[in-house]
Specification:
It contains 4 helices and 55 strands. By secondary structure, the chain is mainly beta. It has a 29-stranded antiparallel beta sheet that branches. It has a 10-stranded antiparallel beta barrel with strand order 6-7-12-13-16-17-15-14-11-10. A two-stranded antiparallel sheet has the order 8-9. The longest helix has 25 residues, at about 1-25. It is elongated. The termini are far apart.
Length: about 900
């Protein structure tokens, strides 16, 4: 008996020593050994982060609650293959006997690519099971909801259980986001990495915490990156079931671009019958390019086949190609017509110094009118195409090779021009001559070589009734050189003196000679091919200064008014180069009019730059600038406002045989008046006009060398006037809702969205207005823009034209989600309303409603759309339209 008691006491002593050794390892070396009665609960001060590493394959040192070290867990049987990192801000309790880890306070566990975060986390090492959940605050609301992340996929729930061995888990009241979609349900079970089952599942693209719509099913299966299965499918709006599909369906759930069918629009038209629009196939062929084939089919109006291909590679090149072809008619009374359109856009940044860009557009005559419902596109008549290659050199010069084409799709006329240009920027060749004005001599040069081909309509009168219409092709080829030299002399008192010399010349490859046969009075032309040059030059000097006038009225908040006058006068000399000895101009005798006719020998190539008269003239300009200094406050600087600029210009030719005074031009504009833009220009002539009659008896007027004041008609006569006045005004504000100040749904993270939905409490309706702010004036945000254009032309006394167009656009926001836009143009002189458009839009958060109405005109009709905003479900929509096409 004594021996048995002795052995028992020895065993107890060994066990106690082993227990004391274990607890001494759990404490810091500087602290006393804890007893078993004190538990193994390790606490640290609040708001401090403690991190530990669990290594499942090595035996290391003991825990230090202040420094991250490893725990000896060699006695814990587990098959984990990597280090587990865990931390918490409140407390950590590790019970070795139970093989149990308990953490609280922003707890986080990381294992390979998996991360679990929650307020409370428990780890059971025997079963490799993690359990996490949130906690309640003093108000009884949950916080610290657990989130599980694996391979950049995050899941939130009220409680998450996960097994590291089987890689399976369950999430109570779980929610996740994949691409643009959200999935949530009463329970989410992860079977493996590529398969999830959702009980009472919901699928939606609405990012509101309590979604406005969703597709639900008691049984849902999610395959990440592939699709979502629902059986059956129930569609809910505001939690009310709208319809049910008693079949198993699925939604695509692939992020990025994916190949597939394009859902078409389907509707009826009185003139075109059954209409199927944009039925097609989308192919995501690569990360760098994709293509879409589609078909528009009209049972009474033909078909249109379309292809749209786009490409992009880094920041180096991007573009798209859009081509359409079909046989279409607007009504059953018209024949089918071939209709085609081509649009190419491309930009290529070869290197920092070289770029290539192209914008090419071609189409058949009635393509836009037959295929588009947009009013402005249907009115398109001219198409412009451009392509260019540019290269910049280290010396600052640049080279450009370009192609341009302008086409009128109504008349089929076009002009296309390939060109090459080279530009040397302004340089100072004598900048090294410091201390002398020669260093300010500047030189610049540009060259442009082009070949223009144009197709134009030629109309010949066969008789008083019949006309013959044909097309003629014209060609213009030339090389244009523009060198220039200027010198800035030192200031002379208050004046700036600038001498200048300009010289330009063109090269041509053919020269024209005209003669008239006296027998039949027909002008005959002969072309001489070769390399020819035409030039012009001029030189002169300009003088300018500035005058200031300041008045300080100190009334109505205006501290000072300043008037700045900038007069400038320039003398220039241009020689007469019309003498036939230069070879620029030729002459022949017109036996019909019994006078000599002078013509440019390079007129077929746009020549005639050489002056035909001697110009020794003085040009003048006077610029007036009016500004004011406005009082703002005692603590800030006064504001300077430039409210009017006016410039008057003209010239006088000393050596002209008549009409020495040019027309006087005046331009006026307002630079910085808030809310107002005013631009005006007018032309004034000092000379009178006399009538003349041609052989057909038509009367025309021409300017004569007689001043208006000599005949008592005043000092000058207005020949042209244009005015553009624009202004905008508005007021009010968008009505604020009671939720103003809360975070926008668009900026909510998945965790914030889940927390709001889980702690959602319906707001009590304030029936009696006890909590309302009382009376508030009704105010809506509105804006009105008015643009007024007036043009007047009276160059000839017998011809006078004028037009006055008012363009008005009005916008109104009755609420935060409603927007109304009205725009139109009114011809005030002809009293005609042109192209009014009414656009109404309702933003329903995840849905939108659009209504566009053209009340009058050829394009009168409407377009209505109600559908989901998300690009994934955008084909779920209701469309109605009424127009001449649909």
């Amino acid at each position: 008996m004594y021996r048995f008691v002795k052995i028992f006491l020895l065993i107890v002593a060994v066990v106690m020593m082993q227990a004391m050794n274990i607890f001494s390892q759990l404490e810091a070396p500087q602290k006393k050994i804890r007893t078993a009665k004190q538990d193994s609960l390790l606490k640290k001060p609040q708001n401090q982060d403690t991190t530990y590493l669990l290594n499942r394959t090595k035996t290391t040192e003991s825990i230090d609650t202040l420094q991250p070290k490893t725990i000896d867990t060699s006695t814990v049987s587990s098959s984990l293959e990597d280090i587990i990192k865990f931390k918490a801000t409140d407390s950590i309790r590790f019970e070795v006997n139970r093989k149990h880890l308990y953490m609280r306070g922003q707890s986080k566990v990381e294992y390979k690519t998996q991360r679990l975060e929650a307020e409370i986390v428990e780890f059971f090492f025997d079963s490799s099971l993690l359990s996490s959940q949130g906690a309640k605050n003093a108000e009884g609301k949950l916080f610290g909801f657990p989130s599980f992340t694996d391979n950049n996929e995050t899941y939130y729930g009220e409680k998450i259980n996960y097994n590291f061995k089987t890689k399976q888990g369950t999430i109570s009241l779980g929610e996740t986001q994949l691409s643009e979609s959200y999935y949530f349900g009463s329970k989410i079970k992860r079977v493996d990495e590529d398969e999830y089952f959702v009980q009472d599942g919901r699928y939606t693209t609405c990012n509101a915490p309590h979604p406005h719509f969703y597709f639900g099913s008691p049984k849902m299966k999610v395959v990440p990156g592939d699709r979502v299965f629902l059986d059956p499918l129930i569609f809910y709006v505001e939690d009310l079931p709208v319809f049910i599909v008693p079949l198993g369906l699925y939604f695509p759930n692939k992020s990025g671009r994916q190949s597939g069918l394009v859902v078409p629009s389907f509707f009826f038209s009185q003139t075109r019958g059954v209409t199927i629009q944009n039925l097609g196939l989308y192919l995501a062929l690569s990360d760098y390019y994709d293509t879409r084939f589609s078909l528009d089919f009209y049972s009474k109006g033909g078909f249109l086949v379309k292809n749209y291909t786009q490409w992009k590679y880094r920041n180096e090149l991007s573009g798209n190609f859009d081509v359409s072809f079909g046989r279409i008619r607007l009504s059953t009374d018209e024949p089918y017509r071939k209709s085609w359109g081509l649009n190419l856009q491309h930009n290529h940044r070869i290197n920092p110094f070289e770029n290539f860009s192209a914008s090419l557009r071609f189409s058949s005559q009635d393509f836009f009118r037959q295929t588009s419902t947009d009013l402005f596109i249907r009115q398109t008549q001219d198409l412009t195409s451009n392509a260019s290659y540019t290269k910049a050199f280290e010396n600052g010069s640049s080279l450009s090779i370009a192609y341009s084409r302008s086409q009128n799709i109504i008349t089929q006329e076009y002009t296309e021009t390939p060109a090459i240009s080279y530009v040397i920027p302004q340089i100072n060749p004598f900048s090294f001559l410091t201390g002398t004005f020669l260093k300010d001599i500047s030189f610049q040069y540009s060259l442009n070589a082009s070949h223009q081909k144009s197709k134009q309509i030629r109309i010949a009168n066969l008789d008083s009734v019949n006309k013959d219409t044909s097309f003629a092709f014209n060609y213009i080829t030339k090389i244009v050189h523009n060198p220039s030299i200027s010198l800035q002399l030192p200031k002379w008192s208050y004046f700036s003196v600038t001498p200048f010399f300009s010289f330009s010349f063109n090269n041509y490859f053919r020269r024209l000679t005209k003669t008239m046969n006296p027998a039949d009075t027909v002008v005959y032309e002969s072309i001489e091919k070769g390399f020819f040059t035409e030039y012009r030059y001029s030189f002169g000097v300009s003088l300018s200064t500035k005058l200031y006038g300041i008045v300080k009225p100190n009334i109505f908040g205006i501290r000072a008014l300043r008037h700045t006058i900038s007069p400038s006068i320039q003398y220039s000399y241009t020689p007469n180069l019309s003498n036939p000895k230069f070879g620029f101009y030729g002459k022949y005798f017109d036996y019909k009019e019994n006078r000599e006719i002078m013509y440019s020998r390079f007129e077929k190539d746009g020549g005639g730059i050489a002056p035909t008269s001697l110009y020794q003239q003085i040009s003048y300009s006077i610029t007036n600038q009016f500004s004011a200094k406005i009082f703002t406050s005692d603590t800030s600087e006064d504001k300077t406002l430039d409210f009017l600029n006016a410039t008057l210009s003209g010239s006088y030719n000393f050596v002209a045989d008549s009409l020495r005074f040019s027309d006087i031009n005046v331009s006026i504009y307002t630079p910085t008046i808030p809310g107002i833009t005013l631009n005006a220009s007018l032309g004034l002539t000092l000379y009178d006009q006399d009538p003349s009659q041609d052989q057909q008896g038509r009367i025309s007027y021409r300017k004569v060398n007689r001043f208006l004041i000599e005949t008592g008609k005043g000092l000058f006569r207005l020949t042209n006037f244009s005015l553009n006045f624009s202004t905008g005004f508005g007021g009010g504000q968008i009505p604020q809702s009671q939720t103003t100040g809360q975070q926008s749904n668009d900026s909510l993270s998945l965790g914030e969205r889940f927390a709001l939905r889980r702690n959602y409490e319906a707001e009590q309706c304030d029936f009696w207005g006890d909590q309302s702010p009382g009376y508030q004036p009704f105010s809506m945000l509105w804006n009105c823009n008015i643009d007024l254009n007036y043009n007047y032309n009276h160059q000839l006394l017998n011809v006078k034209t004028h037009s006055l167009l008012a363009t008005i656009s009005f916008s109104l926001n009755p609420t935060r989600s409603w927007a109304i836009r009205v725009s139109g143009q009114y011809d005030i002189i002809n009293r005609e309303l042109l192209s009014p458009v009414i656009n109404i839009n309702k933003d329903l958060h995840c849905w939108d409603l659009t209504f566009i109405w053209y009340p009058i005109g050829y394009n009168r009709g409407f377009y209505f759309r109600f559908g989901i905003k998300s690009s994934i479900l955008r084909d779920l929509k209701i469309e109605r339209r009424s127009s001449p096409i649909y």
